[in-house]
Design brief:
This protein has a single domain, classed as Uracil-DNA Glycosylase, subunit E, CATH 3.40.470.10. α1 packs parallel to α5 and α2 packs antiparallel against α5. The N terminus is likely disordered. The chain has a seven-stranded mixed beta sheet with strand order 1-6-7-5-3-4-2, with helices on both faces. Helices cover 41% and strands 12% of the residues. The chain is an alpha/beta fold. The protein starts with 9 loop residues before the first helix and ends with a helix. The protein binds iron/sulfur cluster. The site of iron/sulfur cluster has 14 residues, from α5.
Length: 244
């Protein structure tokens, strides 16, 4: 935890209680934050990607339950004031897509357009993400798209660790509600939040990880690709892994 946070203060205790309450509502039976990687990373080969996700040790949720759980969580997010950046947001950006999606994309945080519209990945990077989704023969509405942070950091700065820690329980609850087979993290902050790894994307992509029982495929953020179009080839390979 960041040194700026008060471990003994009422705020910290209230924050822990809030995290546990959200986790409980999402059906979490434990908090996996300290050790997110279930298995060691392995080299990316065609054989590796054939490894199926394990059976989920949690009971099934029907679609109506998932929709209700996500709506309830969205309401909580709208009222959330855990981070200072809540004061500069126009609105929260919860996430959107299918509540039964087999594939969830996780980005870093809302940008200008997302803050303005309340929807994730709707700016130029979002348009590229839509093309990436269509490249693996899926429609945007068939997947789920969310960010680690639900509020826009001022001037689109990189999220602080404390903000990521504060907001991660919401993403975790979304994941536990949707229960996808694959999570594709977009950019280093998203991979760091889900996997707890402090590495550049270039050192993570091309490998398969697991978060709880869900396969995780890290790749570059579409905003990075807009600045470095040559790396679209690498992302194309990552998406083929996702598709398999
Ligand atoms: S970033 Fe997340 S935890 Fe922080 S105020 Fe916004 S919704 Fe709350």
């Amino acid at each position: 935890m960041p040194p700026s946070q008060d471990f003994t203060g009422d705020r910290w205790i209230a924050q822990i209680r809030e995290h546990l309450r959200i986790a409980d509502r999402a059906g979490l039976e434990w908090i996996a934050r300290p050790a997110r990687i279930r298995e060691p990373a392995r080299p990316n080969t065609d054989l590796d990607v054939a490894t199926p996700a394990s059976a989920r040790p949690i009971p099934p949720l029907d679609v109506a339950d998932r929709v209700a759980a996500l709506a309830s969580l969205d309401d909580e997010v709208k009222r959330c004031t855990r981070c200072e950046i809540c004061h500069s947001r126009k609105q929260t950006v919860f996430g959107e897509g299918s509540p039964t999606a087999r594939l969830v994309f996780v980005g870093e945080a809302p940008g200008f357009e997302e803050d303005r519209t309340g929807r994730p990945f709707v700016g130029p990077a979002g348009q590229l993400l839509t093309k990436m989704i269509e490249a693996i023969r899926l429609k945007r509405e068939e997947v789920y798209i969310a960010n680690v942070l639900k509020c826009r950091p001022p001037n689109n700065r990189t999220p602080e660790q404390s903000e990521s820690d504060n907001c991660f329980p919401y993403l975790h609850a979304q994941i536990r509600t949707i229960r996808p087979e694959v999570i594709c993290t977009l950019g280093a902050p998203a991979a760091r939040a889900v996997l707890g790894l402090e590495k550049p994307v270039g050192q993570m992509r091309g490998r398969i990880f697991h978060f709880e029982d869900i396969t995780v495929v890290p790749t570059y953020h579409p905003a990075y690709l807009l600045r470095n179009p040559a790396d679209k080839v690498l992302v194309g390979k990552d998406l083929q892994v996702v598709a398999k």
